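Justification of resources, computational component.

The compute hours requested in this renewal are based largely on the per-chain cost of generating structure records like the one below. Each record pairs the submitted sequence with a full structure-token output. That output is archived, and it is also reused by downstream analysis tasks.
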Amino acid sequence: MYRGGKICLTDHFKPLWGRNAPKFGIAHAMALGLGPEDRLQTFTPLSHILGIANVAAGLASGSVHRLFARFDLDEMLRSIEQDRITLGIAVAPVAIA
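The structure output for this chain reads:
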């Protein structure tokens, strides 16, 4: 959760996160059609809701998940081949690259 440009994990948000994150991950995994045979690749920051959703979906579905510290096109392409990635998730500027 963001508040004023900072991640906010105050007492107000912790119960919400703990109660809703598992359901959110299952719903996102179902929407993406993920299963334990899938291998995900994600370039979204973990502080962003899409990054959290992607990791939660991977955990909920039992998929292998490949995270990157930063975007590198050559490393991404190498990973698709070597790690046998079945689904890549990125924000629009990364996908366009």
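Residues 44 and 51 are 5 Å apart (CA to CA). The beta strands are 2-3, 6-7, 39-42, 64-67, 87-89.
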